[in-house]
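Dear U.,

For the methods section draft, I wanted the exact inputs and outputs in one place so we can describe them consistently. I've listed the two proteins in the order they'll appear in the manuscript figures. Please don't edit the token lines directly; just add comments below if something needs changing.

First protein:
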Amino acid sequence: MTTDRSRRPFSLDEGTAMLASTPRLLDVWLRDLPAAWIASNEGDGTWSPFDVVGHLIHGERTDWMPRVRRILDHGEALAFDPFDRHAQFRDSAGKSLPALLDEFARLRAKNLDDLAALRLEDATMNRKGIHPAFGAVTLRQLLATWVAHDLDHIIQMARVMGNQYADEVGPWRQYLRIISGAQG
């Protein structure tokens, strides 16, 4: 298999396929793990896998599709609402990880159904909205970021969990990028 290291243009079909896979991946990966793995983090001010799932849920409710609609309905006339990057701590309190995984899967499926119902055409992907910190952004950039955001948090969770055995892997640490940052 040949690897193409060039960057790819955003594809709505490919992007939505990636977005649809995240809830399944997280469910298989996290649902039955011991609580210590789910609650682990990298220190003060960092997030555990539990926290990340809560953050993804908050994004499904208040970020991605509301911003898609804002671009389509208002363009650059009305900026996006600011996103609370820490709402998961309040919203997930007292919930179990299985409940969060179920909620994430339900919200993501609904959002992808709503996105598909919009029947976005390529020309529409260039419509702009206003991000409160970045200024003008396109719908294409927003949707590509939704995909990259999922992947970023998957890497984050893997790193947090991989580091649980950082002191136990011995000399292999030099080869484990997830722990040592080694290249390869």
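Second protein (the one for the lower panel):
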Amino acid sequence: MLSIIIPTLNEENYLPLLLESIKKQGFLDYEIIVADAGSKDKTLEIAKKYDCKIVPGGLPAKGRNEGVKVAKGDLLLFLDADVVLPENFLEKSLKEFKEGNLKIAAFRLLPRRKDKTTYFLFDVFYNIPVFFMEKTLPHVAMGGLIEKKIFEKINGFDETIKIAEDHDLARRASKFGKYGVIRSTKLFVSERRFKKEGWVRTSFKYFICDLYMVFKGPIRSDIFGFKLDKYFKNRKNKL
């Protein structure tokens, strides 16, 4: 079984799109776990409508860890609430994961809005660097697939990390099993993070974050002023 774990906070505009895309998948042996950080909108109502398990969450790392505690699957798929799965995403991902003998995997990210310029920006600022560093510096963002036994071996997400806790997980997990970037499919993602702060500023922030992690280790101080609801509060689905 595959356990799909989604941390949420006031995601009524995005969560239905993700859950509907999961529902349309050909692969059916899965469960969906929503780890909610105290939503005040219709997030929980939507999760119940799609028969999701619901557990108390918190910051993303906390929510994902809480989700794993009730997960029945031997594979874990972590998804941000504002992503959408393309057709046959689960079937293709799991096949490549198994055939490549992977233990943890990331995905190519593309915007939901079909725009050549935005596609180019995603490739330049994320996809190409991630592919280039696949063998030396693992990355996972907005979606990651990992064997549960590896996840448990490394004690899951480090809840003391303020930002890029998913990259940290990938780098710790890759010491115990093969990491790779799935090539047979991709994740469609929201542009809200980039619209909020701008492409250059957001990309530069994560570039500096990567450098910090390489030379000093995980970021456990609030050097970027990161807050959970920074991108969620009063957001409307404009995509």
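Candidate sentences for the figure legend, describing the second protein: Residues 226-239 have pLDDT under 50 and may be disordered. Strands lie at 2-8, 30-36, 53-56, 75-79, 83-84, 104-111, 143-147, 179-189.

Thanks,
Y.
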